[in-house]
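Continuing the series of single-chain predictions for the mutant panel. This is the parent chain; the variants come on the following pages.
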Amino acid sequence: MPKITQLLFDCDNTLVLSEELAFEACADLSNEILAKYNIDQRYTGPELLSDFVGQNFRGMVVSLQKKFNFEIPKDEMEKYVSMEEDKVIAKLERDAKPCVGCSEELEKLSKSKKYGMAVVSSSALRRVQASVNKVDQAKYFPPDHIFSAATSLETPTTKPDPAIYLHACKVIGKEPGECVAVEDSKSGTLSAVRAGIPTIGYVGSYGGDEKQKEIYGMLKELGCKNVMYNWSEFDKMLAEIEAM
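Parent structure:
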């Protein structure tokens, strides 16, 4: 196995506790869309989070269109994507917090100077930047090493498409096997694994022991090399991958 020289971190609920805030902010907008197209279904923030965790808003709306068999014109889609981004960023700038133990681990990694570090997210670039700025993590990532499937690619996409991980590797100048990704969701894990990147799962952002055990099993099944409940386990799990 090649030497690991680069760490690629998902953002939402991996670095920053942002998913719940984001889905709260976009529930009203999603319901507005469903009402406009005469779809008799409404979502709360937690329901959206349960159904679409790991997807960005564009991907979620595409999924809603497929699920309920309707179509939004392209210009209208762009309007909704922009509106959602503004709503979510305002909420994140007010309320976002780091995942427990994450900032301490990033500080140790930064001081070690052993690995390059980057953020690879499905979310819009402005949203990712707002999240890491709010929790004082931006200092750990070069500005050109924050990647967004919604913004950084020529054709916007979302995880589980591996395109954003492959793009990040290309820009940074690393082969997938030289990297380790950290992901908390099904879509994110599939994105990294399909890109050929060894992946560590993280379940610490999920509430309750039973939910964490359920997600733990799912992430292992999807191809995570190992899964951590707490960021304090990261060193050990990274060492296990490096020893493979």
